[in-house]
Amino acid sequence: MPIKPLIAVVDDDVSIRDGTTSLLRSLGFIATGFSSADEFLKSKHIRSTSCLITDVQMPGMTGLALYSQLSASGNPIPTILMTAHPDNSIRTQALSAGVAGYLLKPFTEKDLIDCIESALSIE
Question: Does 88 fall in a domain?
Fold first, then answer.
C-alpha cells in the first residue's frame, strides 16, 4: 500500500484553513493546518510534507516568502499559492520562482486536485 502524501495548509483564515484541510482529508490525503508560516516552519511536519498549500497574503511571512525560504534552506517543498487578491506581478514572480500552482479563492475542488496532482507529479 503506497504511503499517502502529507499536505500542509498554511492560512491565517481559520475557515479557509479548516475547510481546505477537511476537503483534502475527504479526498484521501493526510492534511494538517497551520495558522502562519512561522508555525509551519517550527513544526515537526516540515520534513515530511509532500505538498504545501499556502495563502499569499498573511501577517508576518507571506506565502511566497515561505516558499523562497524553504527553497533557499535546501528543503524545497512543492508549493501551491492561493489568494483572494489576484495580482499578476506576484503570480508571475511566484511561477517564475518555481511555485507549482497559483489558485484564486474561491477555487473549485477540481482546480485544487489538479494543482496537487501537478505538484506531486501524479498522473
Answer: yes
Contact predicate 77/68, CB 8 Å = no
Do residues 115 and 103 touch, judged by C-beta distance below 8 A? Answer: yes
Number of residues that make up the chain: 123
Distance CA 117, CA 123 (A): 7
Q: Running DSSP on this structure, what letter comes out for residue 43? A: S
For residue 61, the enclosing domain spans: 6-120
pLDDT along the chain (123 residues), means of 10: 83 96 94 98 94 96 96 93 93 93 93 94 58
In this prediction, residue 123 carries a pLDDT of 37
Q: Which parts of the chain fold into alpha helices (H)?
A: 14-26, 37-41, 63-72, 88-97, 109-120
Number of domains in the chain: 1
Tell me how far CA of residue 67 lies from CA of 3, 24, 25, 73, 109, in angstroms.
24, 20, 23, 10, 23
Listed in sequence order, the residues at least 6 apart from 72 whose beta carbon sits closer than 8 Å to its beta carbon are none
CA distance 47 to 66: 14
